[in-house]
Amino acid sequence: MKATQQTTYRMLNTRLSDVSLQLEKLRSMGASGKKLAVASDDPASVRPVLNTRKQLSNVDRHLTTLGRAADTMAAADTQLGQVENIMQRAKEIMTGAGNGTLSPADRTVLADELAQLRDQLIDTANTSVDGRFLFAGYQENTAPFVANPAYDPATYDPADSATWPVSYQGDGNVTRLEIGTGQTEQVSLAGSDLFLGVSGWDPSGANSIDSGRYDLFAELARAEEVVRSGDPAAMQTSLTDLEGAADQNRQLRAQLGVRASRVETAVEFQEGLKIDLKAILSRYEDADAIEVFNDIVQQESAFQAALSVTGRVSQLSILDYL
Fold first, then answer.
1. Higher confidence at residue 304 or residue 189?
2. What is the pTM of this model?
């Protein structure tokens, strides 16, 4: 059975079209660097690619959350460093105030500086980052600490927060984040715990300072009062209490540092996981540049050959097939 000219020409055109499509696909692959553009390119790779992309999305989400937490913890650490400086200066003032040769005017100058330190401490405790107060618990839209206008040293009671020199408008909640599979870490400090020495703050009831702990504002207020009075024994007691309050701040800062280190480790793990997942995705999606170039050269040669044959066949007459 003899092939007709029309059949032969149609077959050659089909071949030419196939070669042209393959060449176009290779050129697109070379331009994009991707060998998997649509599911039909490699159906077996679709599921692992989708799974890997989902994992990458989760990693990016974790990194964003952990990054925010790390920034917040770094800001908190900076402020706790400022608290340490304030308490250190207060201790220096108390040590100097114990000098029996100071005049009442000299003591007034020192007492005024202690009052300024208390105001600085309030400002530090009300630090905000991106409009959110660091030490307010979950009440992060409200400045947590305000001077108590009703404060009276004569009625001060460590067991009644209504009598304290500075009032707290936050809560005792802290933020915890998942930093690994089944592993969470506390990434914030409640102002009530840090500055007032109250580990379980009740916003709706009376609060008392935990045993063995200190209200930093109250200690600064007490220091100011005893310096003005000039009572040596009271000043020595106040100095001891200031040292205890400063140590309380140092301990909480150290705990924050340990937690920040764990968050940093979690960030490093997620970044390493991201690199591994990108490598897996690359094996499925990315084209080998040299291999694609060689394939393009071969396919262009095949296209030119098919084009040449098709051109010659189109010039044949029906007599050439008889």
1. 189
2. 0.76
